[in-house]
Amino acid sequence: MDFELKTLTSHQAASMAADALILLWPDRADEAAGGIDDPLTLWARGAVADKDIEPAAGSCLLAHRLPGVQPRRLALARAGDGSAAAVRKAVLAALKALPQDALKRLVLLAGNIAAPAVSAAVQAVSEASYRYVATKSQAKPRALQKVTVGVADAGAVRQAFEQGVAVAHGVEWAREWANRPGNHATPTLLAEAARQLGRQPKVSVEVLGPKEVAKLGMGAFMAVAQGSSEPLRFIVLKYQGAAKSSVPVVLVGKGITFDTGGISLKPAPEMDEMKFDMGGAASVLGTFAALARLQPAINVVGLVPSCENMPDGRAIKPGDVVTSMSGQTIEILNTDAEGRLILCDALTYAQRFQPRALIDVATLTGACVIALGGVRAGMYANRDELAQALYQAGEQALDPCWRMPLDDEYAEGLKSPFADMANVAGRPAGSVTAAKFLQKFVGEAPWAHLDIAGVAWKGGAAKGATGRPVPLLVQYLLDEASRLAQEPRRSAKTAAKTPRKR
Ligand code: BES
Ligand code: MN
Ligand code: ZN
């Protein structure tokens, strides 16, 4: 699907060859002065004046073959205050109301729209028209091929438009891979997909297998993988958009391609949803897909430990003690708390980059779903500045998170009589104690953890991956790139000698 941005009047839009036209109508358009005589605007004005359309954002009115208008299907969509959130609602509703199979070419007429709303509009078109077809023999792929976004001044919103297109691409990448069933998205296949990303400019990818991982001493990661006949993969991606000496942001994504719970087996109902347990990995890879398009001036490293969590004669057992790459030993009391075991070794590996920020993304705990549901991701950070930056990025990208606590008292329950720590504490505050476990492996790095268990996919009738938090991560990295541009130049060497104020 291609997007283009054009300066368009409603006169011009009405004469475009397209299968449908969506006319975004913010509240302020109600009061706009008259004198416009194009058929689209007259139709919309009349419908609003006659109260044929509700005022709330997301309300829609359809029309068919309006005289003087080329696209034969029209949707008038109320866009409230014109904010990104309201525009997103409007576009999603309009595409729900239109017959999508009949739409190859779409015009989205947005007039005097603000920059963040342009990005939201593009993402909403992608979100509403995405179709999963990879493992269906009869499914029709998405019909939509070309989307023209018409605005009053294309130059003023060009950058936001490009960001929207790149984020949409990253989100689709993440949704696609998270949606694929466990047997179609093994660690090996996921690594192959990551390798494809390595063909893009400024992106390189390296994939480590069991031998290399053993050599690194990733005992916790290997312990989880040992119950599966699928070999583990450790994927290392690098996006180099800034000088070599510029220290990177490191992203870590949980890549459990299927989580049975292991010997601490999960109950059968809804276990299929544990194919989404690589949602963190998918979002990190999707973020790289977006970076490759946007080419921002920043260095980013992506780390994805990927394996299955299976019960088996060789699988880890409750009570087993393993040695992590950091040297710390872990008593595995519950084999279903496997995400933290693969992440802790990736966090240790990340130390070699002396990251500017270290951010892990994981479908880590059911407890986070209970705490925050599907609206906001749980966010933990050991620096206020980083927490603030991630919070703001989430708000701006309509991909919100909420900061959670890291008081040391929460780590009490992780004490073990047989190892340096246990991999689980009691039931209370399960998302927090998981974060406290991870914190033992981050050293002095500015670190944040996103528990995306509630937001990475939707269950029920509309079951499927969301691609979150790609929008948040891309926004954060673009913000970070502009902060970096404002900093005086520092090389990695001086950064190592003189601890920087973070
Ligand atoms: N992948 C799950 C977390 C999860 C569960 C995400 C349900 C979304 C929905 C994770 O590996 C897990 O099993 N966590 C356990 C931890 C517990 C054993 C301390 C959990 O949340 O039950
Ligand atoms: Mn688990
Ligand atoms: Zn898991």
Automatic annotation (TrEMBL):
Write out the catalysed reaction: Release of an N-terminal amino acid, Xaa-|-Yaa-, in which Xaa is preferably Leu, but may be other amino acids including Pro although not Arg or Lys, and Yaa may be Pro. Amino acid amides and methyl esters are also readily hydrolyzed, but rates on arylamides are exceedingly low; Release of an N-terminal amino acid, preferentially leucine, but not glutamic or aspartic acids
Pfam families, per database record? Peptidase_M17, Peptidase_M17_N
Localization per Swiss-Prot or TrEMBL? Cytoplasm
Names of the cofactor(s): Mn(2+)
Gene Ontology terms: cellular component: cytoplasm
Q: Name one GO molecular function term.
A: manganese ion binding
- Which Gene3D superfamilies is this protein grouped with? Leucine Aminopeptidase, subunit E, domain 1 (3.40.220.10), Zn peptidases (3.40.630.10)
Q: What class does this enzyme belong to in the EC scheme?
A: hydrolase
Q: Which residues bind Mn(2+) 1?
A: 259, 336, 338
As for what it does, the entry says:
Presumably involved in the processing and regular turnover of intracellular proteins. Catalyzes the removal of unsubstituted N-terminal amino acids from various peptides.
Which family, according to the similarity comment?
Answer: Belongs to the peptidase M17 family.
- Quote the protein name from its UniProt record: Probable cytosol aminopeptidase
Which organism is this protein's natural source? Tepidicella xavieri
- Taxonomic classification, please? Bacteria, Pseudomonadati, Pseudomonadota, Betaproteobacteria, Burkholderiales
Q: Which gene encodes it?
A: pepA
